[in-house]
Amino acid sequence: MTDRWKPNATVAAIIEQDGKFLLVEEHTPEGLRINNPAGHLDEGESLVQGCQRETLEETRHLFTPTHLVGVYMSRSQRAANGTEDAQDVTYLRFAFAGSLGALVPERQLDTGIVRTLWLTPDEIRASAARHRSPLLLQCMEDYLRGQRFPLDLIHTDASVIMLGAA
Length: 166
What we know:
- InterPro entries: NUDIX_hydrolase-like_dom_sf (IPR015797), NUDIX_hydrolase_dom (IPR000086), NudJ (IPR033713).
- Its cofactor is Mg(2+).
- One of its GO terms (molecular function) is ribonucleoside triphosphate phosphatase activity.
- This is Phosphatase NudJ.
- Belongs to the Nudix hydrolase family. NudJ subfamily.
- The chain contains four helices and nine strands; from the N terminus they run βββββαβββααβα.
- It has one domain: Nucleoside Triphosphate Pyrophosphohydrolase (Alpha-Beta Complex), CATH 3.90.79.10.
- The strands form two sheets. The protein has a five-stranded mixed sheet with strand order 5-1-7-6-9, sandwiched between helices.
- The mean pLDDT is 93.
- By secondary structure, it is α+β, with helices and mostly antiparallel strands.
- It is globular and about 45 Å long.
- The protein is 22% helix and 42% strand.
């Protein structure tokens, strides 16, 4: 039987305040990179819940998604090196805009996250060589153009949440 191809479902927070965007700087196999607070969707959570969790883990801030900015796909190819096999991964990213909540000071940043930083759109554009994902820039540009969709566009059946609780 042939394995069925499946993209990796990820969520990302597009957080803008006072003309700057909240990003994270993180260690990757390619070195130190910047990205939106983002990560993989976990079993048993909705897309919104996943985005809230990832934002908290990577920034120590609560986050309330208010709109879906867009759904994006990208592909990452990494050659084999002495310690890792070659990788060819397709990501399916659900990017959310929303409001940044309180800092939870007792939390530690997720493994690999060095720090959070606030950058202007021009600083983000100028740092493209340091982006972890090409989607960082695309999501920001779509957000700046005013692209927003209501959260009720997304439906999570109760079976997803119930499966995670089992």
